[in-house]
Specification:
The protein is mainly α. Helix content is 53%, strand content 8%. It is built from 14 helices and 10 strands. Strands 4-3-10 form a 3-stranded antiparallel sheet. The longest helix is centred in the N-terminal third of the chain and has 25 residues, at 27-51. The protein is globular and about 55 Å long. The two termini are 31 Å apart.
Length: 402
């Protein structure tokens, strides 16, 4: 039999069987997804009850604690809680769930007033809240806010470098020049969206330039990424790669790679440039090869304390969501099957008693690592882990229903 035909048959079989033998689209898989979404719904209700008397948003819960640490609209994670509520609404379509999502989204309106100074995270803040609001309601009033956010994000672009400045405050506090962190890949979606929905075409060009420049300078030969890339602000020359949240400048920080996988999947979706598809395949492959058996990474793959190092469930949730989308964009059926199978196994393992918060606290997941070098949010429940977990379940549900 022809080798290519054999591979196609194998891929077709793999794409049918996921979740330990549950067929995609089967009643068994559909029921499993609904069970996990019901679990999320109960924990959302518990969180709403806990924060009801405040005008703050939940961010994280320390290990062995039950109360959410809360934040204001200006925190970089502020968009994730409204985003979680919008995914609940998308899966329920009830008026009450929509009302809660609208309420918490409105809390972020101050992000786009002229006097509010921003960094690159306005992409996270706006896309997860207002972006999902528009996605699930098609109300153009949300687009107006997104356009204001995109204008602020685009203002951080340095054309000499070709990337968006991530942290303006680090120029003074750390004496850094123009700095771009891998997380910034996630914020490009706001520019792509606004370029297609009434904004200047320049937004598209900025996003593509950022992605290409990051691809050239932010990765090592083995496709693992630096957390931070530093550039000369005047000449635009790449100076060096380093870290702010990884184990060391040269280590393989798990969540940074997760941002890269998700970010370049999104860039390929928006551009359909096969250069980005081939690139993200390699970025995903090196991540998958280094995973422990349960597919939930240690916070940094090079931490010498492994296997006693903390895990990062947030990275697993981000990658699971990204790989579900990537599997549907793939032009290689074997790779598509591999990515979908890996993503569903990640979700299954995250949905076990080893990682679910269950009765411990009102979050969805435990065992995420925020900033290990700063000793902050270690082995904690964190809102962005929950956000990408419910997003991944929603994406898998949509795929299953097809």
């Amino acid at each position: 039999m022809n080798t290519s035909i054999t591979k196609l048959i194998i891929a077709s079989i793999l794409s049918i069987f996921v979740l330990n033998g549950q067929a995609t689209g089967s009643p068994r898989q559909s029921a499993w997804i609904d069970e996990q979404l019901d679990y999320c719904n109960r924990h959302i209700d518990a969180t709403l009850a806990q924060i009801a008397a405040t005008d703050s948003l939940p961010r994280s819960i320390k290990k062995d604690c039950t109360q959410w640490g809360r934040i204001s609209y200006g925190d970089w994670t502020s968009g994730f809680w409204p985003g979680i509520l919008w995914y609940r609404y998308a899966n329920s379509r009830t008026k009450n769930n929509r009302r809660e999502a609208v309420r918490y989204t409105k809390m972020l309106s101050k992000l786009v007033v002229p006097e509010h100074k921003v960094d690159h995270d306005i992409g996270f803040q706006i896309m997860c809240s207002y972006g999902n609001a528009y996605r699930f309601t098609h109300n153009n009033k949300y687009v107006r806010t997104m356009q204001k956010g995109a204008q602020k994000l685009a203002a951080l672009y340095n054309p000499r470098v070709g990337t968006i400045l991530s942290w303006p405050h680090m120029i003074k506090s750390q004496n850094w020049p123009h700095n771009t962190i891998m997380d910034n890949m996630m914020n490009l979606e706001l520019l792509f969206f606004c370029a297609k929905n009434g904004g200047p075409s320049e937004y598209y060009d900025i996003a593509v330039s950022h992605a290409r420049t990051t691809m050239l300078n932010h990765f090592r030969p083995d496709y693992t990424c630096y957390h931070v890339a530093l550039y000369d602000s005047i000449s635009g020359q790449f100076i060096r790669g380093c870290t702010n949240q990884g184990y060391s400048d040269d280590s393989f920080w798990a969540r940074g790679q997760a941002w890269a996988i998700y970010g370049y999947t999104m860039v390929y979706r928006e551009t359909r440039d096969k250069t980005f598809l081939r690139f993200v395949e390699n970025v995903a492959d090196v991540y998958l090869r280094r995973l422990p058996t349960d597919l939930v990474p240690y916070w940094d793959f090079d931490d010498p304390n492994i296997p006693d190092a903390p895990r990062d469930a947030s990275a697993a949730a981000i990658v699971a969501s990204a790989l579900i989308e990537l599997s549907q964009l793939e032009d290689n059926t074997v790779k598509a099957a591999q990515f979908l199978d890996s993503a569903t196994q990640m979700l299954q393992n995250l949905s076990s008693a080893n990682y679910l918060s269950l009765d411990h606290n009102p979050a969805f997941l435990m065992h995420s690592t925020g900033n290990m070098p700063a000793n902050y949010e270690i082995d904690a429940s964190i809102n962005y882990a929950d956000y990408y977990y419910i997003e991944a379940l929603t994406r898998l549900k949509s795929l299953t229903n097809k």
